[in-house]
């Protein structure tokens, strides 16, 4: 025997020992491992990849019953029954798993996709921040409106010199837009309801003016009636003199 033949035999022995250990440890087919080592293609594939969760039914049908039982144990499925039952059980479990994964993906897509309308509503419902300014007043920065800390009503507007100006009709309109409760200043309406809109205040003022005009009309009518009575008395006196 030549040295090359002796070397080849020793290598084959080592390979056989190694393949035998791998086959026993991972429950694999020794002959298929040797075929892979020798670059021999085989039609039958019984190597089970424990990391593969979803196998097609055709691949499962190629597996032996012991391998199918092992897969069922890994998936915590019932391990009894015929080979066909085991294959059907594994396929059904794989389909259910795939459907659940698809549902999770769809939920993620729905949650991540926010319609523009929702964004608009969220932007409109932002928390209104009232901060204490450098003058010690509670101010709404966007409008410069000043709040009474106790009543939580708008009492005026912050001036640059530190003073607080009375509310104007424009300021009250802004209060209505933000739904702020406010105290109506004396120069606008002492009796006005703080929750009444500016348009309502204007209508109240108009109604009071109408009442004043109506009262003036009544006074004018009364004066005209008195003048007519006075003229009639003068005519009667003249007739008596004649």
TrEMBL record:
Transmembrane annotation, as ranges = none
**Acidic residues compositional bias: what residue ranges?**
201-242
> What Pfam families does its record include?
SAP
Q: Where is this region: Disordered?
A: 192-242
User: The SAP domain covers which part of the protein?
Assistant: 66-94
Q: What is this protein called?
A: SAP domain-containing protein
Q: Which organism is it from?
A: viral metagenome
